[in-house]
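Example record for the data management plan.
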Amino acid sequence: MTVFQDSSPDSTNLRSDNVRADNVRSEAPDPDAPIEFRLQPGERYGWWEDHEPEDAHEVAMVHGAVNDCRTKILLDTGASVSMLCFDFARKLKLKLRTHKRMKVSGLGGVPTYISAHAEVKITLGPRVV
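Corresponding structural encoding:
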């Protein structure tokens, strides 16, 4: 488990089926390139989060425990590590191992800094994973 120091701003949650055709880049798309959209006047990063139907926010959240402390857990099968903020790490009373700050970027290329890590026991249902 990796702990990051800075809280990130609103993330962009864009869905291609909610965007007009004039928002898509005009040149021939590279099938391996990420899809890009321009923000419309009045829109901001995170705009879709406030304007999508409620059922569009469904994610794979489950009830579980980290080091025997109950919490909700986001299931992300493609992630090689999980990150959380220092405040939540303190609440869980994790034994953090600090190291030199390392810059990383995630969703939308928003940079943040990792400055500690911890090994944790994660429980889902009756099993430890």
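Summary line stored alongside the record: Residues 48 and 109 are 18 Å apart (CA to CA).
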